[in-house]
Amino acid sequence: MNRTRYGNRDKRRKTNVVLNVLIGVVLILIVAVGSQLILGGDNKQPSSSKVSEQQTQSAETSKEDEEAASQNEDENSDSSNTSAGDKPEEEPKPEEEPPADQKKEEEQKKNENEENADPTGEGKWEPVGTEQSGEHTAVYDKGSTDWKEMTRALSTATGIPENNMTIWFLGNNGSPNDAKGTVSAKNSGEKYEVTMTFVENEGWKPLTVTKK
Length: 212
Known about the structure:
Layout: H1 2-86, H2 100-116, H3 145-158, E1 165-172, E2 178-185, E3 191-199, E4 203-211
Antiparallel strand pairs: 1-2, 2-3, 3-4
């Protein structure tokens, strides 16, 4: 009986020891897991805050860069406008005008021609005179008497002075004593075509003037 009781006590004691050890291990594990959870949460919080701070700093830096770039563009634009405004404008060169006397003479001849013109385009000009006599055959060589007298007729018909006239064409117009010439003033791009005929002992007579 005593041995049996003693054995039962010993058995209970061992069981209690094992239970106490197991309980202690469980408590240690609980403490360890709780510590990790607490410490892990604390560590994550600073990390999130750090990321947020970095993002905020990055956003502020980008905003500052954009403001700086915008300011530089404004300064460059102001500088360009200032430079453009400071550059003097070149005034167009006035066209050379003929002397007052020459201009007055051209206008007077032009008015005379307009007065002599009729609705058909045939002018009522008189022959310009001639140094030639007898039977006449036109000569179209520069420097010839005919050339000089035909040039005078061109000037009379168009109102362009001979010394300001460009002769583009001067030649025969179908018969030996009919001529045609195309002229313009040296300071103008307007061309005129003049037809004329030679009147014996009176010279070349302008017939028509057409603006080309």
